[in-house]
Each structure stands twice: as C-alpha cells, then as structure tokens.
Amino acid sequence: MKNIRLIFLLMGAFMLFLAGCGNTQESGEAASGAEGSWQPEKPIEVVAPAGPGGGWDTTARAIAKLLESENIIDQRMAVVNKPGGGGAVGWAYVNGKAGDNHTMFIASPPLHFVPLNGQSDLDYQDFTPLSAVIADYAAFIVKADSPYNSMTDLVEALKKDPQAVSVVGDSAPGSMDHMQFVKAVKAGGVDVKNLKYVSAQDGGGMSMLLGGKVDVYSTGLAEATEQARAGKVKVLAITAPERLEGETISEFPTLKEQGIDDEFVVWRGFFGPKDMDPAAVKYYEDAFKQMMETEQWKEVRDNFGWTDNYMNSEEFAVFLEEEHKEIEALMEEVGLKQ
C-alpha cells in the first residue's frame, strides 16, 4: 500500500515537472515572437512630402512599386503626396501618427535645413530612421558661353569679391540648393557671409541661368545632366567623392579633383513615426536591403542615375547626427540658423 502511494506521488511530481517545462517553453516562444517577428497587417502609407514628379515622389513610387512587385512586402504600398513648407506639411502629418507601424515617409537633407532655418519645429530626431537607400549629388553649372570654365575659376572670382557672382537655386535661402553651394565655396576659401544668392522657388532656376539673369545654378545632378547633353551648360563641379560612371556624367569633374576638399551627399532614405515597434523597424530595414539586391532595383537605379547608399536604422541615425552638427555650424556662420 505504501509502495503504491509512493508511486502515485512520484508520478504526480513528474507530471508537474513536465508541465513546468512546457510553460517555460511556451513563454520563451512567446517572448521570442514578441521580440523578433513583425509583419504588416494592412496597407502601408508611404508619404512623399512634396508634389508629384519631384525627387521624393519619384523615389518613393519607384521603391514602393519594387517592394510590391518583388513580393518583399506582401501589403499594398500606397504613396500619398503631402506637399508644402519644403516638406514640413508631410512631416507634421507623420508626426501625428506616433507608434504607427504602417506609416513611413521619404526624406533627404532638407530634413536638416528646413528646421534649422525656422520653417519647421520638427527635425530628424522626431522620427524613427528606417533605412538610407540612395545617394545623389549636387552640381554647379554655368551657361555654355560663361567665362568660368572650372570651379577654381569661380572660387577665385568669389575670393576677390563675394558679390561678383550671382547664384540661383530652386529653394529658399538656408535650404539645400543654397547651402550645398555655400559649403563648397567655403571649403575653397571664400568668405561666405556675403554671397549673392537668388531664390527661384517656382522651379525657374534653369530658365534664369539660360536667360542670363544669374551666373551660376546650384542644382541636382539629374537637372545638370539633361542640359549638359544638349550643350547648353557647362558643369563646373559635382559634389561626389569621385568621378561617376555613365554617359555624360563621367565627364563632370568633382570638387576634390580641383583642389577643393569637399563633398555633399544628397541622400534619400525612409523614416517612420516616433515610437515604432523595434521589430517593425527591423522588418523594414531588412526589406529595403533585400530590394536593393535585386536585378530590377539595379535597372531602376541606373535609369535614374542613383548610387546605392544603404544604411540600416542604427547606421543611418549615427550619420544623421553627425551631418546635422556640420550643417548647423555652417548655417550659424552665415547667419541663417533660427
């Protein structure tokens, strides 16, 4: 009798032990799932904080289409335009979606410039960096019959008289077109406090240059390439670290090869609202990386003249912090930081 009772006690203890192991295993699996896995459960809203056809819109639509067509993300990627304020309207919209794992937006250096010149209360620190994707570069161009044949010629003229040359850009003073030029000529030794910058915010910078109303146009590589192919402009310099490959663009000299130790990357990347689930951040950064390894992406990238510039969330955050400090110091120097 005692032996039978002992057997039942031992069996009961063994069953409790097995139950405990099962509970521990189930808890472990649940924790692992909570920490490491996330999948979108509904369509993802991709905000382009500008009108259709611009750089943000074009990049967002090209990438969203590839993420869908390559079945990397199995939910609809719906691109929505939120123009206004140099990006500020779109940023305010996303800022109101804190913790939303199904919203993101595309951005570039104006996410630094616009807040620093007082046009927005929001900057990169108010959002969750997901991934940097591409690099583009600035270009400084003059008319084909301009007396300036190199960036060195232009810098020397500006050293003698900072008001001798008028520069136009398609953004406001203190924004990217302006500051990319300021950064370049400052590296060449020019006193940048009194430069003559003209804002053509209606997108008429190229027309003003070709019409002889200004001397230099500070713009993007794509805009410069089209007119250079037509023989209407000379590209004095681009802000890439080295010469680029490709028809026409391989002819454009860099600042560095002309003795000006400067470069400027017009990066484009994606951000989410603040307080995103870390597992969602990991999902998106992996999705962008996978997309950039496809042959279809390489065709799209080369068609637009983009350069791969992948950074995951953590790398992107470090890059943004360092760049912000540099831009802030430059804008303080020229008296444009608000």
**CATH class annotation of the largest domain:** Alpha Beta
CATH fold annotation of the largest domain: D-Maltodextrin-Binding Protein, domain 2
Domain count = 2
Sheet with the most strands? 10 strands, mixed
Mean pLDDT, as a whole number? 89
Distance between the termini: 90 Å
Order of helices and strands: HEHEHEHEHEHEHEHEEHHEH
Uncertain runs: 1-35
The CATH architecture of the largest domain would be: 3-Layer(aba) Sandwich
Q: What does it look like?
A:
It comes from Bacillus thermotolerans. Residues 1-24 form the signal peptide. This is Tricarboxylate transport protein TctC. Belongs to the UPF0065 (bug) family. The protein is an alpha/beta fold. The protein folds into two domains: 44-136 and 266-333, Bordetella uptake gene, domain 1 (D-Maltodextrin-Binding Protein, domain 2); 139-258, D-Maltodextrin-Binding Protein, domain 2 (3-Layer(aba) Sandwich), CATH 3.40.190. It has eleven helices and ten strands. β1, α2 and β2 form a beta-alpha-beta unit. The longest helix has 35 residues, at 2-36.
What structural keywords apply?
single chain; 338 residues; D-Maltodextrin-Binding Protein, domain 2; 10-stranded mixed sheet; 43% helix; globular
